[in-house]
Amino acid sequence: MSEPSAPKRRSEVADVDRSLYDFVKSEEGYERFDDGLSEEIVREISAKKDEPKWMLDLRLRSLEIYERTPMPANWGPSIEGLDMAHISTYVTSGADQATSWEDVPDDIKDTFERLGIPEAERTSLAGVGAQYDSELVYHNMREEVAELGVVYSGIEEALHDGWENVIREHFMKLVPPTDHKFAALHGAVWSGGSFVYVPAGVTLPYPLQSYFRLNAAGAGQFEHTLIIVEPGADLHFIEGCSAPKYNVANLHAGCVELFVGKGARLRYSTIENWSKNMYNLNTKRARVEEDGAIEWVSGSFGSHVSYLYPSSLLMGARSSCEFTGITFAGAGQDLDTGCKVHLAAPDTRASVATKSISKGGGVSTFRSSVVVAPKAERAKVSVSCQSLMLDDESRSDTIPAMDVRSASAQVGHEATIGRISDDTIAYLMSRGISEDEARTMVVNGFAEPISKELPLEYAVEMNNLIKLEMEGAIG
Q1: Among residues 224, 173, 217, which one has the least CA distance to residue 195?
Q2: CA count, 13 A, side-chain hemisphere, 457
């Protein structure tokens, strides 16, 4: 007779059921470039997209920078398990990009329908882009939004549709290939992503959304998102991503460049739900002009290792940044997340509020960098980070860095780390609440100030993920 299993601790929280995300589609008939990185592969990608010479030159220069730049070492989570010699930088189904959902191939359409993208488009979004592995398979925007002069397309399409000069002026200017090794890798092999242009004074009534699905095992996804919000305009952009779990490493090294004009506002919301074999080495950066505002809402729930620090360059007087983030690190996850803010002009403001949850040996690290330049007179910065550990195995660290060079600046930082108390669970149960409900209440109460900022109403996939986590099925 087997021994009875040990009872769960009252503060224990179960792992997430990832069945919604872990289905895999066949790659039969797909085009897949050889693993590894070479000049030949870079030239093949460029030729496939019929790019102008300046883009090929940028790719080749990026490759050169990548090859001479050492791997980052000894400052963040280990990426020893990532071997570029076993990563394919380009995989495609070969399907043409569709503007009608009915024209998307059935197996790809089924993937996005499971994740709720068509429903989100019909009910809540001004436009949707869907990327599958290395290429966009669907892109569409409401006619009334297009009539406002808004452009929302793939970057490859925009390069051939009259926007080449604008793209050349902005592409990899905020995140140059010299920024770090994986920015150089991105510059060499980038594929897919979105181009958004919002004319001056235009406010979009609904958000735009891009969703990235990496289906192929042992592959990388390197999409590039370029958004230009002209003076006085207003945009909410949502980004979602997921991948099934494999027993080999996958890589995500995308890049996001955001240009926010005078008096403009951009909210950039992200739900990152990669599988636990993913190395998520993404780079995001925004430049904000006078009286402009950037708002980041970031949810990091997946990947084996993450390095993710959205950056804001507040270049104009009275420009502002708000960063709201939540991270969950479960078993086998080491998530190093946070943000960077550079205040370079008078009366600039930055507010950072993050929460992290860790369990099962998961490691959650909040890392921030705040630089207040001498010209940033009367700048105001507030940084707050709170961590909740759900067991004795987990770890949570806070590593703030502040470089303040303006005597009139006001800068504050606070951090707290805590655990679910058995006494708290016992008290709630004494009030007639079940143990599962009590755990859910504690976790939900901790995360609610952050989770309420997430765009739950826009995609079933996002709703499902947050629901799983807030109900206690976290992992």
Answers
A1: 224
A2: 7
